[in-house]
Write a structure and sequence with these properties.
Layout: E1 2-4, E2 7-13, E3 23-27, H1 37-46, H2 48-57, E4 65-69, E5 77-81, H3 93-110, E6 115-118, H4 130-148, E7 153-158, H5 161-175
Parallel strand pairs: 2-7, 3-5, 3-6, 6-7
Antiparallel strand pairs: 1-2, 4-5
Helix pairs in contact: 3-4, 4-5
Bound molecules: adenosine-5'-diphosphate.
Adenosine-5'-diphosphate is lined by residues 15-17, 27, 37-39, 41, 83, 119-126, 157, 159, 163.
């Protein structure tokens, strides 16, 4: 467990669909109509209620976020955000990935949500190198806490040992600065 100002930061290894929190974040695609990876897992575990709302929303630009209820999941809401496909790093990927995290947190605040869980956005099929992506994730969350406060707990839910260890190293370093 880590703390930034008044916000608890947790690292969790495992499946985000099992997390009990106000909102889990989905690494969706622009259609919001479901896909593989974490997106597929969330729709499978959450059931058709989530997809029905996504269809009505009608899509989401890269870097933005949209919200639905969470169907059968133990969380209350799903915040769907779209990270960038990594194409070498010169195509605004860093800014877009930052926005995906930051805008998810802004939406949580608008809904008065206090706890949120993020997967590692864009680092699966979208190919963003985890070392770079984790820096951006941590920076966006830290900036949001410092600029807006208003969130009690942020979970980073990592699916692999390697991803978990990378986050652990970076957060340890940040706490010792
Ligand atoms: P993207 O298309 O944004 O790259 P992916 O779903 O392909 O999204 O991958 C994002 C990350 O989510 C990857 O690290 C992947 O291993 C991880 N992941 C896949 N399923 C789950 C799950 N059920 N819970 C948490 N993380 C998951």
């Amino acid at each position: 467990m880590y703390k930034i100002n008044e916000t608890i930061i947790n690292l969790i290894k495992g499946d985000i669909t099992k997390i009990e929190t106000d909102a889990i974040v989905n690494a969706a695609n622009n259609t919001l109509l479901g896909g593989g990876g974490v997106d597929g897992a969330i729709h499978r575990a959450g059931g058709p209620e989530i997809l029905d709302q996504c269809k009505k929303i009608g899509g989401c630009p890269t870097g933005e976020a949209r919200i639905t209820t969470a169907g059968n999941l133990p969380s209350n809401y799903v915040i769907h955000t779209v990270g960038p496909v990594y194409r070498g790093g010169d195509n605004r990927e860093a800014e877009l990935l930052y926005n995906a995290y930051y805008n998810s947190l802004k939406l949580a605040k608008e809904y008065n949500l206090k706890t949120i869980a993020f997967p590692s956005i864009s680092t699966g099929v979208y190919g963003y190198p985890i070392d770079k992506a984790s820096d951006i994730a941590i920076k966006a969350v830290t900036d949001f806490i410092e600029e807006k406060g208003s969130i009690d707990k942020v979970d980073f839910v990592l699916f692999s040992d390697n991803d978990y260890e990378i986050y652990e190293k970076k957060l340890n370093k940040l706490m010792n600065e």
